[in-house]
């Protein structure tokens, strides 16, 4: 199995995982063939990447730390929550907490040190998928920090709700890259943490930590964040965790620039460059050590020109996975823990 861009689909490729629409509705089942004929339809629906299997990727297993059923239920619950919010209906926080409990259970039963995250969101359900992804990432980091299950519940709930204020903004602003916004649009967009906080402050049975996350997930250590421009220790640790996870998931998603997402390694590089400046350095270190830089199933190019698919991780060494080489006899492997002169120079 591997992850591939829609434009690189070939006739012999078979869908390796079910393809879901909004709210977890199945669009195509695992095993679907003739995917090439759906290229344009996929693009129209905001689907730019697929899990596929072919001769080159056969036998490679992509194990997600969180079950697909858990993700689908999370998307469904978030979608229903946002719908109720817009219709000014009562929202039951226990439904969100049930999803968080399922995510926590999945994470606690997974013994893998380096986690592969290759959840493929489409533009139709970006906000739902983003909420769930950020919660998964935050809970992985919280678990790595030794949080209790109660603390993980606070963290996961706040992470799922962190962008709830975006649901109250005009969709054309939410979907626009911030660098392309007018000053007025940017002002409106940057109000969403406060809007989200005010939404849950009095009317929902939300814990204080989750409220701090909602209000503080766009703040930065150096005071350049928003909406309050907080600095250093004024930022709650849980908000710092969600800030990192939010940025990473946004960078590696194709929602803002359809069909173009930043490879994981470049997003990791961005986080590293801002460790101790915008983001908490300890959280960045945990993130880099526990989230795969080159997820299993991703396409990579080595410094000597060889290309391949990441087959598995070398525990404790996220920059040096095992790569199944393409265009060589019997799909030989390059174990980057053994080939110390070989490094990955590109990935998608």
TrEMBL record:
Pfam families: HD_5. It comes from the Bacteria. InterPro entries: HD/PDEase_dom, HD_GYP_dom. Residues 105-303 form the HD-GYP domain. This is HD-GYP domain-containing protein. It comes from Selenobaculum gibii.
């Amino acid at each position: 199995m591997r992850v591939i861009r829609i434009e690189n689909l070939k006739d012999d490729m078979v869908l390796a995982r079910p393809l879901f629409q909004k709210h977890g509705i199945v669009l195509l089942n695992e095993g679907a063939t003739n995917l090439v004929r759906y290229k344009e339809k996929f693009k129209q629906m905001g689907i730019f990447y697929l899990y596929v299997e072919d001769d080159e990727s056969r036998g490679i297993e992509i194990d997600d730390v969180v079950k697909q059923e858990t993700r689908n239920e999370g998307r469904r619950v978030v979608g229903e929550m946002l719908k109720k919010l817009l219709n000014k209906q009562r929202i039951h926080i226990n439904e969100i907490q049930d999803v968080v409990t399922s995510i926590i259970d999945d994470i606690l039963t997974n013994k893998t040190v380096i986690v592969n995250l290759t959840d493929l969101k489409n533009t139709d359900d970006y906000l739902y998928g983003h909420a769930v992804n950020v919660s998964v990432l935050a809970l992985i980091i919280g678990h790595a920090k030794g949080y209790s299950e109660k603390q993980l519940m606070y963290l996961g709930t706040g992470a799922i709700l962190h962008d709830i204020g975006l649901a109250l903004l005009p969709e054309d602003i939410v979907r626009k890259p911030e660098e392309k916004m007018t000053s007025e649009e940017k002002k409106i967009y940057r109000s969403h943490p406060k809007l989200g906080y005010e939404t849950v402050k009095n009317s929902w049975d939300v814990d204080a930590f989750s409220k701090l996350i909602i209000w503080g997930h766009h703040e930065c250590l150096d005071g350049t964040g928003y909406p309050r421009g907080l600095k250093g220790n004024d930022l709650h640790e849980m908000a710092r965790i969600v800030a990192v996870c939010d940025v990473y998931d946004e960078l590696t998603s194709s929602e803002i620039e359809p069909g173009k997402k930043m490879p994981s390694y470049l997003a990791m590089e961005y986080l590293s460059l801002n460790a101790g400046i915008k983001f908490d350095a300890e959280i960045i270190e945990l993130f880099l050590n526990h989230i795969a830089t080159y997820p299993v199933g991703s396409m990579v190019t080595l410094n000597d020109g060889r290309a391949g698919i990441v087959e598995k991780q070398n525990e404790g060494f996220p920059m040096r996975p095992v790569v199944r080489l393409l265009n060589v006899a019997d799909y030989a492997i390059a174990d980057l823990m053994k080939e110390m002169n070989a490094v990955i120079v590109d990935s998608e």
